[in-house]
Write a structure and sequence with these properties.
Residues 3-119 form the Response regulatory domain. The modification 4-aspartylphosphate is found at residue 52. Keywords: Phosphoprotein. By secondary structure, the chain is an alpha/beta fold. It has a domain at 19-106: Rossmann fold, CATH 3.40.50. Helix content is 48%, strand content 20%. It is built from 5 helices and 5 strands. It has helices spanning 11-23, 34-43, 60-69, 87-96, 108-124; strands at 3-7, 27-31, 48-52, 77-82, 100-103. Strand 3, helix 3 and strand 4 (77-82) form a beta-alpha-beta unit. Helix 1 crosses helix 5. The longest helix is centred in the last third of the chain and has 17 residues, at 108-124. It is globular, with a radius of gyration of 13 Å.
Length: 126
Amino acid sequence: MARILLAEDEEVLRMLVTDTLEDEGHDIDEAADGAEALSFIEQNQYDLILLDYMMPVHTGLELIEMMRELPMPQHAKVVMLSAKSQAADQQRVIEAGADYFISKPFSPLALAERIEEILSEHQSLY
């Protein structure tokens, strides 16, 4: 079981992803905008952070920048979720510090499978 933050402003997508990941046994915190996500990040440690690229208040890219400034850094893997899937957008996300990029739309089940792969890779590093 992993501790995961899902920052996504689309309520239906957030509910689908949360339900799918909880069914896999993960503990999920949900944020509907960048400010709420930042608050969770400041108060908790996560195994994985899923960030929507375009959210109200702070974008996913801005959150990555803000995470670097925190006194207690996150050691979580960061996955950016975005409909902006051009190569330049993906490159910008990786250069900003995200570990992975997943294009929208996606199947919540396919996302859950990819998350399991990412968590397995991350755990094998320890």
